[in-house]
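Q: Convert this sequence to structure tokens.
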Amino acid sequence: MRVGLHALGIGSGADPAVIKAVATAADAAGFSTLWAGEHIVMVEGPDSPYPYSPDGRIAIPSDADWLDPLATLSFVAAVTSRIRLATGILLLAEHNPVLTAKQAATLDVLSNGRFALGVGIGWSSKEFAALGVPFKGRGTRTKEYVEVMRNLWRDGDASFDGAFTHFQDVRCYPKPIKDGRLPVILGGNSDRALDRVVAYGDGWYGFNLSMDEVSERIGYLTVRCEEANRELSSVDVAVSIRSGSVDDLQALTELGVDELVVVEAPPADPDAADRWVASLARQWGVASEWRA
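A:
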């Protein structure tokens, strides 16, 4: 069982000194992945419910610092050597896929193949409106954008003619380190989100779930994989859980979870980062028999 840490890029985790201190400590402690999420803009009183909390509201203040995850993880890549880096998640439909393919491959090269691109379709209609991107159809747009990026990562001369993206015989370098591929991890907890995972994802990031919800969601994912003649083991499963403990790791392993993601806000004082990371490592059994 891998244990990752989702702590960087927001609030106290947006300070460069804190980012460096947490990243280097997590790298040394044996955490598997550092995750960084995204919102390009936040608004007071969103007119779309936040899907990852029971009350439909996001706990992060709208005026909190929220760094761009690709830039943040590039900074992290420069101060770490082992730990995997992942966006958790990037709102792909809000981005130009050709530019995102370039940025993601660049980060993969700078990290020597340690990057995984986590993407989702987004939930805030006002955020899409601020960017001039239609909220309706964002799932279809996301699927096409993943296809676009995979073409650009794979092909020397790439062409694409889709509903939203058109280009002919273009070259986009560098290529990702590992055979011209980057893992694309899809976020979201709904049936439709898991359907997307089965259809074209390399992994799934389930966020802020109870243990019962993890079990039910993996049950649904298993059925959908069977219907699609796909092995569940081909999906890299990462989840964050509410009110969990190290005692849940055995049950998560038996369910088919590959990585538990610990979601915590780091201390504002970078000098306290080592102790904070060490405490989390002890709490979650990192560097014990659970470490992959």
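The first helix runs from residue 16 to 29.
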